[in-house]
Amino acid sequence: MQVTIEIPDDLAERLDPQPENLVALIKRGLRDLWSEPSAVAQEVVDFLARGPRPGEILAFRPSEQSVRRVGELLEKNRAGALTADEQVELDELASLNHLFSLIKAHARQHRPATS
0.85 exceeded by the pTM? Predict the structure, then answer.
């Protein structure tokens, strides 16, 4: 299907001229955030659902399998070989990483003082 749209000049300047990036952007916009959680996202959700204490939050690390997956996506990104779905996954993981960094920062404020 072919679609023609008009967008403001400032947005047009921000669009990458590669059509696959525009497709990925539209796909990302149409899909619900976390609709199909990645293994990493599922690990974080499962962990937080247990109601961890601040010290447990600070100590949390994703599984080796999840770390490998993120490494694969980053390597493909560096090589310019990500598919549109992988780009969406990497973007969601970046958002999740940012969110978890904020959670850890707040956990530091709430952990008991050590003597």
Answer: no
